[in-house]
Amino acid sequence: MATTHAASDTAALKARALAALAAxxxxxxxxxxxxxxxxxxxxxxxxxxGWIADxxxxxxxxxxxxxxxxxxxIVARAHGRGSGPTVGLIAEYxxxxxxxxxxxxxxxxxxxxxxxxxxxxxxPDLAGTVVYYGTPAEEGGGGKILMLERGAFQGxxxxxxxxxxxxxxxxxxCLAVQGVxxxxxxxxxxxxxAPWNGLNALDAVIQLFNAINAMRQQLRPDARIxxxxxxxxxxxxxxxxxxxxxxxxxxxxxxxHKELMARAEACGxxxxxxxxxxxTISKGMLFDALKYNRxxxxxxxxxAEALGFAVEExxxxxxxxxxxxxxxxxxxxxxxxxxxPGVGMHTREALEAGKAEVGLAGMIQDAKVMVMTAIxxxxxxATVERAWAEFRQA
Length: 394
What we know:
Layout lengths: L6 H17 L1 H13 L8 H13 L3 E4 L8 E6 L6 E6 L13 H16 L8 E6 L8 H7 L8 E5 L6 E5 L2 E10 L15 H15 L8 E8 L10 E10 L2 H22 L2 E10 L6 H13 L5 E4 L6 H5 L4 E5 L12 H6 L3 H23 L1 H13 L1
Parallel strand pairs: 3-4, 3-5, 5-12, 6-11
Antiparallel strand pairs: 1-2, 2-4, 6-12, 7-9, 7-10, 8-9
Helix pairs in contact: 1-4, 1-11, 2-4, 3-4, 4-11, 6-7, 8-11, 11-12
C-alpha cells in the first residue's frame, strides 16, 4: 500500500497545486470561452477534444483520443512516483442541440483540464495516477455508458465530477431513466363502410396510456412515467393499421426502476391483447441512478467549505450517464455556483452564464475543489479503501 501523507504534507501539496492552477487560470478561461463559442453536439465534439488534448499533452499527460472506440472520447493519464490510487476526473464538453452550452459543459471540460494540469505539478511527490476522462455525448448519447461497457474506466479507484449550477451542493442521487417505445400493428379497414374488419392500432395506444395512467396512484413519489404518441394513424377514414408511443420511465431507485419497466411493458402487451393487435417493444439505453458515496462527499464538502462555501446535500431531479459510472466505481458529483440564483440548466440564462464572469469564476472554484479532493485521495489510500467499503456495503 502506498504511504499515507501527514496532514501538513497534504496541505503543502494542495497549496502548490492551487498555485499552479492560478497560473493556468487565464488558459482555462480562454478554453472555456472557445468551447462555448464553438458548440458541438454529442459524438461530434472534435474541436473541443483537440483543444483539450493539446492542453493536457503540453503538461505531461499521455493522451489517448478515440478511447473505447469513440472518436471524441479522451483518456489522458499522468503518473506519480509509484503505485497508488487512480483518481478519475470526469469531464464533459458536448452542447445541447439548438441551444449550445446551456448546461455548462464548456466549464466542465476546460476547468477539469486545468485541474488535471495543476495536479501534474505535484504528482512527483505522490503515489498514484490522475486520469482525465473526456466523456462525450452526456446529453442523451450515454458516452460514459459506452466507455464503461468497453472497459475505459477499468482500474479507476475513485471518480470526481463537478457540474454547473446555481447552488453549492453534493449530489446525493438522481433519477434513473430509460426510454421505451411501443409499436402496434393492426389491420386497416374503411372507418365507415366496414370498421368491423379492422384492428385498431390507435385504440391499443390509447389503452396503453390508460393502463399507465391507472398505475400512477400506486407509484412511489420519486417515480416518473411520461410519454407521447409518435404515430396516431394514417387517415381519419381508415382504421389505423399502425400506431406508436414513446415513454420515459424514471426512478431514483435502480431496483424499483426495473420493476416499473416491467410493469410498463406489461401494460403495452395488455393493450395489444385487448385490441387484437400485435406490439413490438423497444427499450433504449438505461441511464442508471446515481449512487452517493458519503466518504467522497465528506472530502468535497470539507474542501469547498475551506474555500468559504456552505455545501448542502441535494438530490438531482434530472438523469445523467454519470449514474452508470457511480454503480461501478465510487463517484462524487458536486456543484459550486456558476449561474445566478434561480437559473436552471438548459435555459438561455444558463447559456449566457457559461461565458460570463459568474460562470468562469465558478469554474475555477470548482477546479480548486477537484484539485484538493484528488490530492486527499492520492495522499491517503486508506480513504480510498473506505470509499470502496462503503460502496460495496451500499
